[in-house]
Amino acid sequence: MLLYDYANNDWRHTLPSTRIPRLSNGSRMVLIFAQGAVKALSTLRTYAATLSSKPAANEANAISPQDSSDTQTGNADNTSQEHANTIDKLEEIYMSILNVLHFSESGRDCSASRDFQIDLEEAAVASWPHMVSNVFIAHLQPRDQVGIAEGFSYTTLAHFYLVFVLFEDLWFFNRGSHKEIEKIFRLVSDLQNDQLLTLMEWPMAVIAANREQFLLKSSLDRSWIYLLEPVDIFHRHSSTLHTPTEMDSTEGMFEFKLYRYTPSLGAAVLFLVLFALVTLYHLYQVIRLKSWYFLVFVFGGVFQVIGYICRTLAHNDTNSIPIYSIGTIMILLAPPLYAASIYMTLGRLIKYLDAEALSIVPTRWLTLIFVIGDVVAFIMQAAGGGIMASGSISAMNTGETITIVGLAVQLAFFSVFIVTSTIFHWRIHQNPTERSVIKGPSQWTETTWVTVMGVLYVSSVLILVRSVFRLIEYAQGNAGYLISHEVFMYVFDSMLMFFTMVVMGFYHPSKLLSPRSMGRQSDDTTTQLHRLESA
To answer: Where in the cell is it found (predicted)?
Structure first.
């Protein structure tokens, strides 16, 4: 340690409690590293000493039963020495980093960010891969059975990977080292060794610090394991480690994945273009006809466009939580906006037909009741999506539950709405009003109240089917069959919602229910009253 300027034994006692100037505005990740480096090195050395005193712990070092006891003892001694030497190298690397972060301030200008970056690159990138021995690397080679000694070697390797993780923003690592540490964590979990799991707590805390994706608890109950953010452990890097199952029955660790596939770029771009075009058409109709109540429907289309922009981006970045969260929430919340427009359209249509008496729900309450139900469903789905976006397993489960309840509320109100619409349609067919009588053969080529009712039926059924699909999808959970296959989302959500917008655009309700049409209705009614009075 004396090889480093400004470094002495005092740093072991002062660093964890000392204000580090270079970290005052830095990341929590680097701060946790600086405060935990001393303890990490100490625990690694302690376990290495324990391992060397227990030859039995090395029973899985790929030594065949035919080897002599002298060979086994020699291999155990060599392994122990390599562990000790490797930890010495690790301490040198850590000291170099801590020197840059803390001790070098008196010798250099704090504002020299370029020099600071050069120091970090030299300390973090150029050193450790060349410092570990080939014997240590040989311990990391794939084999049929991995024992405690190999597990400790991988654990030590995780501490080396932290060097890359700390400075990934200054170098092009693409978060690969995060994944390697998480793979090692899973390997250690499979070994079911409490001491190795304890050694992995600090690396896992460092990589999770900035993302705030799990709460690190005491290793005594090991409940923190369940809160680990599961990820695609084979992302970008080939793996020689054990492949985990979806649910580790021993540890109870559920593996949550943002995507269980690589999002299709072609499908995302296709629906991005389709939704953009149909949304622009609806916006044009709203502006042309001044039917501002229908802007809610347009906002639903905008949500879809944003959602599929995110899915397009996700094709090349499947680990971005913001992209996943925004995309999922936007696509999830678009249908409730469509539903609100449909509710308002029926209320306006009943008034247009002078058929308030035929509605089983008073028209002054009809729109309000269903829109309130839709808002409740919207808020619950938004809240569920927001909670899931926080990233932890407990939050994911809570968010899914809230989303399921929101979908159920939406489904219930929509079912009642369809019944209400059907009853009204039957009643006005039996007792037509003057405005409901359509003359001439052109009723299916123009926007009439009959075609608008047909549009409402078709749109309602499409949204209903989509809601049932989403309800089943979320009920199955993150590892469910539906959510694991992208095709179902495009068939039962994307296509259905696109057809909903197309159908509503083909017989646009605003052509009949715009303020102009409603105004003409009032003028016609006034004229008829005057005629009756004259008679």
So the answer is: Membrane
Position 506 in a domain: yes
CATH number at residue 471: 1.20.1070
Per-residue pLDDT of the chain (535 residues; tens, 9 = 90+): 333 333 444 444 444 444 444 444 455 666 677 777 878 888 888 888 887 665 544 444 443 444 444 444 455 556 677 778 888 888 877 776 766 655 444 444 444 555 555 555 555 555 566 667 766 777 676 655 667 878 888 888 888 887 777 766 554 444 567 778 888 888 888 888 888 888 888 888 877 765 543 333 333 233 323 223 332 222 223 333 333 333 333 333 345 677 888 899 999 999 999 999 999 999 999 998 888 889 999 999 999 999 999 999 999 888 788 898 899 889 988 998 998 899 889 988 888 888 888 888 887 788 788 888 888 888 888 888 777 665 555 666 777 788 888 888 888 888 888 899 999 999 988 888 887 776 655 556 677 888 888 899 999 999 999 989 988 988 887 778 888 889 999 999 999 999 999 999 888 888 877 666 555 554 554 454 445 445 4
Question: Considering all CA atoms of the chain, what is the largest pairwise distance in Å, rounded to the nearest integer?
Answer: 123
Neighbours of 129 (CB within 10 A): 11
Q: Is residue 244 part of a domain?
A: no
Q: Minimal CA–CA distance to 84: which of 49, 59, 43?
A: 49
Do 102 and 32 share a structural domain? Answer: yes
Do 186 and 321 fall within a single domain?
no
Read off the amino acid at residue 429: H
Pairing, β 253-254 against β 247-248: antiparallel
Give dist(CA 78, CA 1) in Å, integer: 25
| Co-location of 136 and 273 in the same domain | no
Does 480 share its domain with 415?
Answer: yes
**Predicted structure pTM score:** 0.53
Q: Would you say residue 254 lies in a domain?
A: no
Domain housing 162: 11-213
Number of domains in the chain: 2
Q: How many residues does the chain have?
A: 535
Of 325, 471, 333, the closest CA to residue 411 belongs to 471
Question: Which value, in Å, is the radius of gyration of the alpha carbons in the chain?
Answer: 32
411/510 same-domain check: yes
Residue 56 sits at the vertex; the CA angle it makes with 55 and 57, to the nearest 5 degrees, is 90
- Give the pair of three-digit tokens for residue 266: 């072609």
